[in-house]
Amino acid sequence: GDSVTQMEGPVTLSEEAFLTINCTYTATGYPSLFWYVQYPGEGLQLLLKATKADDKGSNKGFEATYRKETTSFHLEKGSVQVSDSAVYFCALSDRNSGYSTLTFGKGTMLLVSP
Amino acid sequence: ETGVTQTPRHLVMGMTNKKSLKCEQHLGHNAMYWYKQSAKKPLELMFVYSLEERVENNSVPSRFSPECPNSSHLFLHLHTLQPEDSALYLCASSQGILGTESTDTQYFGPGTRLTVL
User: Fold this and answer.
1) Interface residue A107 vs chain B (CB under 8 A)
2) Could you please report the per-residue DSSP string of B68-85?
3) A106 CB near a chain B CB, below 8 Å?
4) How far apart, in whole angstroms, are the C-alpha atoms of residue B7 and residue B5?
5) Which pLDDT value is given to residue A20?
6) Residue B9 gets which letter from DSSP?
7) Which residues of chain B have pLDDT under 50?
8) Are strands B10-13 and B112-116 parallel, antiparallel or unpaired?
């Protein structure tokens, strides 16, 4: 079956540091790939997505590129802020008729200190 | 604000109580989902509704009973729960077009934090 593997956390960084959170996946077919973010006490918010190989998703300074050859979708940001502290989830979407099925990684907690 | 609301945000209940969680989406979507998020575990998909018809039920115990009266509302009825059912319950919705293979983005509500005593 499909699966998503994320690096274990927590990731601890100082403000303005460079961020990479690794994500690899196993899937049949051609899934869409997503990064969701969850701030404390809240639900999941879509951060970015990519729907086909070589697509780059970007939002709020975060980027991730759909790499089919390495089955990866690593999240990067050039300069993190304290407000980026949250849990980040990588996910892939299977195709069904009329709905999607998301498979999530376990999540990576990011802690950014001033 | 994602366009998906959930009530209540927090719920404490005893094992013999009956309660319901409510989800409402204001996005005009056709598919709705219930997820369970427990500490130290990946998100678990519980139920999927497409155009008000249940299309997936992932081995969820019968003490959880979903209801989708229309495409904007989704309920999760709870009865005789166990302490291990304490978790964050998340609702999501997606566009979904019947007859079209879809990898549509899912939009999540803020969740209901459930504690079973």
Assistant:
1) yes
2) EEETTEEEEEEES--GGG
3) yes
4) 7
5) 97
6) S
7) none
8) parallel
What percent of chain A clears pLDDT 90, i.e. is strictly above it?
A: 77
* Among the partner residues A34, A98, A104, nearest to B43 by beta-carbon distance: A104
Q: What is the DSSP code string of A21-84? A: E-EEEE-SS--EEEEEEE-TTS-EEEEEEE-STT-EEEETTEEEE-BTTTTB--EEESS--GGG
Say if A96 is an interface residue toward chain B (CB within 8 Å).
yes
Residue A99: its pLDDT value, please? Answer: 79
Contact A27, A93 (CB under 8 A): no
Residue A97 pLDDT > 90: no
Mean pLDDT of A4-17: 94
Residues A34, B50: C-beta atoms closer than 8 Å: no
Q: How far is CA B52 from CA A23, A101, B36, B59, B73, in A?
A: 34, 16, 20, 19, 9
Identity of the residue in B42, B55, B107 whose CB atom sits nearest the CB atom of A106: B42
Q: Does A109 touch chain B (CB under 8 A)?
A: no
Q: For chain B, how long is the longest CA-to-CA vector?
A: 44
Nearest CA in chain B to A48: B105
Distance from C-alpha of B15 to C-alpha of A30, rounded to nearest angstrom: 43
Q: Which of A98, A101, A105 sits opposite B97 (nearest CB)?
A: A98
Half-sphere exposure (CA, 13 Å, Cβ side) for B26? 7
Q: How far apart are alpha carbons A84 and A60 in whole angstroms?
A: 10
